[in-house]
Write a structure and sequence with these properties.
This protein has 86 residues and is an all-alpha fold. It is 90% helix and 0% strand. It has 2 domains: 53 residues; 33 residues.
């Protein structure tokens, strides 16, 4: 009987410890996962911008050309310029 109790205790303690750890540290793990996800997303967006080769000056120059030929209005150009400089 004592051996059976000891085996049950040894099997339950690791699981009990795991659940206590998850309850105590779960919020921190969630925060770190969110921060890592946001950092990854920012890095991906930066890479896409770099790979696309569209720096703000190029975007503004394209917008000026579209404005010059009448494809966009002054308001649309101003919005494009603001977005490019952001």
């Amino acid at each position: 009987m004592a051996k059976t109790g000891w085996i049950i205790f040894l099997l339950l303690v690791p699981y009990l410890g795991m659940f206590v750890y998850l309850i105590a540290r779960g919020q921190g793990m969630t925060e770190r996962a969110i921060a890592a996800s946001q950092a990854s997303q920012t890095a991906q967006q930066d890479y896409i911008r770099q790979a696309a080769g569209t720096d703000p000056a190029t975007q503004i120059a394209s917008g000026q050309e579209l404005l010059r030929i009448g494809a966009i209005s002054q308001q649309e150009f101003d919005a494009l310029k603001t977005k490019a400089l952001a």
